[in-house]
Design goal:
Elements (H helix, E strand, L loop, with lengths): L16 H12 L5 H8 L3 H13 L19 E9 L4 H10 L3 E6 L6 E7 L5 H5 L6 E7 L14
Antiparallel strand pairs: 1-3, 1-4, 2-3
Helix pairs in contact: 2-3
């Protein structure tokens, strides 16, 4: 007869439910005052400040940011561009993407393509000009984002 013991889930990351609540609150509003955060997590302001400092010092919180609306700056379309550099062009293509102001995010991936980039465009007509530096150095496959179903979010921390 086999006996199966109940396994206890152990949090190996060292974070607890309070850390999770802090991260959730700051993810929603990075400008939240320590007093408001402390009230939200039912702690004193100095204790909340210390918790945030520890999360920052540990590298769990890498920074605080502003969430801009690209449309407010004239960018009306977002494109997902899959990029397959030609032989010997990997580093050159990577450099072009890093220096491309319209490229807001790019991942180097496995599979048929080497890069997947998110690019903001002012118009569909601007797509050709934006991708021109890549034209002789890679093959590209572009999809225009119709709607964002899931906005960038953080994984569960505990």
């Amino acid at each position: 007869m086999m006996v199966i013991e109940k396994m206890t889930l152990i949090n190996l990351s060292g974070f607890d439910a309070l850390d999770s609540k802090i991260i959730e609150a700051l993810s929603e509003n990075a400008r939240m005052s320590m007093r408001d955060l402390a009230e939200y997590i039912s702690m004193s302001a100095p204790s909340a400040t210390e918790r945030v400092r520890k999360l920052t010092d540990s590298g769990a919180i890498r920074g605080f940011t502003v969430d801009l609306d690209p449309k407010a700056f004239g960018y009306s379309l977002q494109a997902i561009v899959r990029i397959k550099p030609r032989r010997g062009q990997l580093q050159t293509v990577a450099k072009i993407l890093v220096e491309m102001p319209e490229c807001i995010e790019c991942d180097e991936v496995t599979g048929e393509d080497c890069f997947i980039a998110r690019i903001w465009l002012r118009s569909i007509e601007s797509l050709e000009d934006v991708l021109a530096p890549l034209k002789d150095r890679s093959e590209t496959n572009t999809s225009i984002v119709h709607k964002t179903t899931v906005r960038r979010r953080h994984p569960s921390v505990i």
